[in-house]
């Protein structure tokens, strides 16, 4: 086997890890794939024989690439409607085997990714690398170009912000969450406002992202009343709801007359739904293999 082929084989073995790092930093599947590919290009052009610890070297490189992407984003104008959801990770409902439990425990909620999107680029990188992947602050300092002390402060500031996401999505095992989601959907399809309010946290937040194609559908709503009224959309004819996992938690795929129209994620606090995330952007929905989750 040629040296280049051996290097490519080692890289492919590490690709899932690098993709996970990039997704948690960027919240975008396409950008994460681009970052990983950019990392491969940099590796292929480097003297790999001089790299003592390839996994650590690649993690550093992909992190730097992601930091550049985050800085580029920060320099761009804000979305005109101010609503953006991270790309969801959609999967089948678990059968509760060991592999499923591993997937669930390693998942990062949409609620957390939404908060990560509010962090400064260096804060996000420092938090993800330290709190999620357990790199030392010395290692992270080399990525963000700060001192070790300053890097520790970046992660600490991020951690305080992230605490809100943990509070938003802090309750219930998988079965409890699925029961709440099913009750919400049943009440929504039945037009039962009282039933909806009963499963919603009084301070529930709904975030809907329609993307550039459906700007008018984008919105942020707060409170059980307004969110319950928005849920009446499920009474429209031809709507089919398929239970799925969304970032490791019970969610749904929604289609109308066979065409996918939304992915919905749910956060739970104190046995009530505390946040609902709805991706309506047709372009991003098209990237999901909707048929793979049909029974």
Automatic annotation (TrEMBL):
Gene3D superfamilies: 1.10.1740.10, 3.10.450.50, Winged helix-like DNA-binding domain superfamily/Winged helix DNA-binding domain. Residues 11-74 form the RNA polymerase sigma-70 region domain. Keywords: Sigma factor, Transcription, Transcription regulation. Residues 115-161 form the RNA polymerase sigma factor 70 region 4 type domain. Residues 164-174 have a biased composition (Basic and acidic residues). InterPro entries: ECF_Sigma-70_Domain, NTF2-like_dom_sf, RNA_pol_sigma-70_dom, RNA_pol_sigma70_r2, RNA_pol_sigma70_r4_t2, RNA_pol_sigma_r2, RNA_pol_sigma_r3/r4-like, WH-like_DNA-bd_sf. Interacts transiently with the RNA polymerase catalytic core formed by RpoA, RpoB, RpoC and RpoZ (2 alpha, 1 beta, 1 beta' and 1 omega subunit) to form the RNA polymerase holoenzyme that can initiate transcription. This is RNA polymerase sigma factor SigJ. It comes from Streptomyces ferrugineus.
């Amino acid at each position: 086997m040629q040296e280049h082929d051996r290097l490519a084989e080692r890289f492919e073995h590490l690709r899932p890890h690098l993709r996970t790092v990039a997704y948690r930093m960027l919240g975008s599947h396409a950008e994460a794939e681009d970052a990983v590919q950019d990392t491969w290009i940099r590796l292929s052009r480097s003297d790999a024989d001089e790299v003592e610890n390839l996994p650590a070297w690649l993690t550093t490189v992909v992190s730097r690439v992601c930091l550049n992407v985050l800085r580029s984003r920060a320099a761009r104008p804000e979305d005109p409607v101010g609503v953006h959801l991270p790309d969801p990770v959609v999967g089948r409902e678990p059968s509760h085997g060991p592999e499923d439990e591993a997937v669930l425990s390693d998942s990062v909620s949409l609620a957390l990714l939404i908060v990560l999107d509010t962090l400064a680029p260096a804060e996000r990188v420092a938090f993800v690398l330290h709190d999620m992947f357990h790199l030392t602050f010395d290692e992270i300092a080399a990525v963000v170009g700060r001192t070790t002390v300053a890097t520790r402060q970046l992660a600490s500031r991020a951690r305080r912000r992230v605490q809100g996401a943990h509070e938003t999505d802090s309750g219930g095992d998988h079965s409890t969450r699925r029961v709440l989601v099913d009750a919400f959907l049943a009440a929504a399809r039945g037009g039962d406002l009282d039933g909806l309010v009963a499963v919603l946290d009084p301070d529930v937040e709904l975030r809907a992202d329609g993307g550039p194609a459906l700007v008018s559908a984008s919105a942020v709503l707060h409170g059980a009343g307004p969110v319950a009224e928005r849920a009446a959309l499920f009474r429209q004819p031809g709507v089919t709801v398929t239970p799925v996992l969304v970032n490791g938690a019970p969610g749904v795929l929604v289609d109308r007359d066979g065409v996918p129209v939304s992915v919905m994620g749910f956060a739970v606090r104190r046995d009530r739904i505390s946040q609902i995330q709805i991706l309506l952007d047709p372009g991003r929905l098209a990237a999901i293999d909707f048929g793979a989750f049909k029974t």
